[in-house]
Design goal:
Layout: H1 23-39, E1 56-61, H2 67-79, E2 82-87, H3 99-109, E3 112-116, H4 120-129, E4 134-136, H5 144-157, E5 165-169, H6 174-186, E6 189-193, H7 202-211, E7 214-218, H8 221-225, E8 230-233, H9 244-251, H10 258-262, E9 269-272, H11 284-287, H12 294-312
Parallel strand pairs: 1-2, 1-3, 3-4, 5-6, 5-8, 6-7, 8-9
Helix pairs in contact: 1-5, 1-12, 2-12, 3-4, 5-12, 6-7
This protein binds phosphoric acid mono(formamide)ester and norvaline (NVA).
Norvaline binds at residues 138, 173-175, 234-235, 238-239, 273.
Length: 316
């Protein structure tokens, strides 16, 4: 790709949300991620190599990140491309330049952009005005790249996710939303246990009602983990949440601990997107115990990201 090209005439393939990506394409991405993991860094087929094209990924961060930053950076390098990391506060975006103009500028310099932003509406605005692919690296509403890695991790440990049961315990946050989107696309049962004060509302509830998937809402963690193959939780306080003490109080009964894990299937795995807060949403015994696959999950961000990049760049 030539970086001075005006790409306004091409149709970019964005990765914005799980429910906005056709199920067959999601399966293609996951299968590619599995095969890329098996191959490792070597033996990349020619059609997946960016080596000769000077292809550059820009990453924009309005919020902190360890895994998303590292996995996209390493994924792009392993594909033979390059990255540039932009802190939103150091850009004119942070001083009020419009997202539309930023999208047009990015499209003239780089080939693909990943953004982690506060507002989902900003992601959509960026995608609307960009002539290059835009990837959602987490918003207030969703975290689709995480769920690709999670499904990959589920399949490595349990087998195909179709027809299986996943339990979400705790806050109905952005990661929970992407699990909600995934349930119908991958055809599994999702049981969510959340305190009524932090249960899905608004768009998230609409997504549940529109999903056509098998999604069960409860306030009882024991009910949610019964017959489950995978117990998932996340921080009680997401980036941008302000009501910290109230959340900790409401979510205390939703801790994933040995008593709760015993109520799931004997071979159930434990997942957490990380970063974790030991002895809050999960006990040390569980997150560092034999059922936990959290570090495989983190590594799989790399393989899933490589597959997403290849898909967005239309290499597959
Ligand atoms: N799970 C995840 O997205 O981690 P980071 O916030 O470190 O990127
Ligand atoms: N729900 C968390 C996920 C972090 C990867 C947050 O938004 O802070």
């Amino acid at each position: 790709m030539n970086i001075s090209n005006d790409k306004s005439k091409t149709t970019p393939r964005h990765f914005l949300d799980i429910h906005e990506t056709p199920a067959s394409e999601l399966r293609k991405i996951i299968n590619l991620a599995h095969s890329m993991k098996k191959k490792g860094r070597k033996d990349l087929p020619d059609h997946l190599s960016l080596q000769d094209d000077l292809t550059v990924l820009a990453m924009i961060f309005e919020k902190p990140s360890t895994r998303t930053r590292l996995s996209f950076d390493m994924a792009m390098r392993q594909l033979g491309g390059e990255t540039t990391i932009l802190n939103a506060n150091d850009m004119q975006l942070g001083r009020g330049e419009s997202i539309a103009d930023t999208a047009k500028i990015l499209s003239r310099f780089v080939d693909i952009v990943m953004i982690r932003c506060n507002s989902h509406a900003d992601l959509e605005e960026l995608a609307l005005h960009a002539s290059i692919p835009v990837i959602n690296g987490l918003t207030d509403l969703s975290h689709p790249c995480q769920i690709l890695a999670d499904i990959m991790t589920f399949e490595e440990n349990i087998g195909p996710i179709k027809g299986r049961t996943v339990s979400w315990i705790g806050d109905s946050n952005n990661v929970a939303t992407s699990w909600i989107h995934a349930a119908s696309q991958f055809d599994f049962t999702l049981k969510l246990a959340c305190p009524s004060e932090l249960s899905p509302t608004g768009k998230q509830l609409e997504d549940i009602n529109n999903s056509g998937g098998n999604i069960i809402l409860t306030s009882d963690p024991a009910q949610a983990v019964a017959n489950s193959d995978c117990v998932v939780t996340d921080t009680w306080v997401s980036m941008g949440d302000e009501d910290i003490e109230r959340r900790k109080k409401l979510l205390a009964p939703y801790q994933v601990n040995a008593d709760l894990m015993k109520k799931a299937n004997e071979k159930a795995i434990f997942m957490h997107c990380l970063p974790a807060h030991r002895e809050e949403e999960v006990t040390t015994q569980i997150i560092d115990g034999p059922q936990s696959v959290v570090f495989d999950e983190a590594e799989n961000r790399l393989h899933a990201q490589k597959a997403v990049l290849a898909w967005c760049l239309q290499l597959v």
